[in-house]
Amino acid sequence: MNISITASAGLPAGGLARGAALIMASEFFLVCSGMVIKHLHGEVSNEQTVFFRNLFGLVLMLPWLWRSGGVQALKTSCLHLHFVRALTGVVAMSCMYYAWAHLPLAEAALLKQTMPFFVPIVAFFWVKERLSWHAIAAILLGFAGVVLVLNPTQEAGVFNVAVLAALAGAVLGGSTKVSIRRMRSGEEPARRVVFYFALFASLLSLVPAVLNWQPLHGAELGWLILLGAFATLAQLLLTAAYGHAPAGQLGPFSYSSVVSAALLGWLLWDETLTPLAVLGMCVIITAGVLVMMGQRGRA
């Protein structure tokens, strides 16, 4: 059955295993990005980190712009959607980077994966997509898992603020996914979407970075370049993965980041998770898989 689906979609038969391997590699490098952000916390401001990440992406897109004919490749009728996507994306990135810096790696990685819960909700209100009872039940289950991870019985503090920041980043990340869907439905090329995001995101993140600038030394610059390399490699692997199998089939493998983040957090920072947080993680992963299964069935 899976072979016929991928073949009918123009994807290589038997590509699920390769796509899953690429997805897991992509998620691993995203966790590596979180490790760099956590390491730089206190030495480089969050605003600087976001700016340099976007600037690195913009530099990488310049060769494509040169090969594609320069300004002619940038003509678009969706400039307002590109700007909205960049604005929400920068805020989402700022929230997620704050979470990476202040939360245990595994919890930050998991809360990033709550984005699938918010995509159907945003799509329901923005583009009037139908929200099935199956999706509603899975989303409610996911929120119950978030409550377990949040652990409202513990003392309020930075931890709770970081969790809320991660959830805000997931909501805004869901909005960017829906904006991409609207642009791609209008035949907007993927590389143009990526270029405009890098351009607007660099401009939007510049002012906060200047206002919160901290002196940078050679070591910090090296780590920022490494962050850009990890994030870019993760994006390239993610793009390659979707060339082997449909997104609905590959989605559940993205939760491998939670396992690698838990192991790396334990090895590098001696981070441990409470039994309640582990239970919440299991609930969120189950709900996320259910949401993706529902999206695959609708497709």
Automatic annotation (TrEMBL):
Alphabetized UniProt keyword annotations: Membrane, Transmembrane, Transmembrane helix
Membrane topology of the entry: Multi-pass membrane protein
Domain EamA as annotated: residue spans: 18-150, 162-292
Protein name as annotated: DMT family transporter
Superkingdom of origin: Bacteria
InterPro entries for this protein: EamA_dom, EmrE-like
PANTHER family found in the cross-reference section: ACYL-MALONYL CONDENSING ENZYME-RELATED, SOLUTE CARRIER FAMILY 35 MEMBER G1
Pfam families per the UniProt record, alphabetical: EamA
Annotated localization: Membrane
Transmembrane spans: 49-66, 78-100, 133-150, 156-173, 193-211, 223-243, 250-269, 275-293
